Here is the input.
Amino acid sequence: MSTGLRSGQVAEAAGVNIQTLRYYERRGLLAEPERSNGGHRLYGEEAVTALRVIKAAQRLGFTLEEVAELLEAGRHRHGRPVARLQERAQAKLAEVDAKITDLTTIRTALAAAVEAGCDDLTVCAGSACCPIPFTDLAEENRHAGPCC
Here is the structure.
């Protein structure tokens, strides 16, 4: 290969920095590029596509290890669909749903704490109307009285 994209060109086209490009190469997510006579890395356009796929998968919540497994499965599919992507996507969807549930619970508690005027965790925890979920741990220390 006498022509190709140099590291900076690939990184810029894919929206990553050169260190990220090299890191993915070391991790085996990208094939090792050919070298010019001067020793410069020369990548094909497929490297830009691969980087975009990796970054998109990360934005969807896949770890680099999971991305590597999906890429590897895709390389060996020989024209057949890769069921692993469907399985992984369903599992990731379940993780996202669980996180949304947790974040909704956290948001509800924080909004209630703000509305109640909680300004001191220790005082709030001892209050009968403390909205923060840890209050049930100190149930025996509660006293009736004004909120926070």
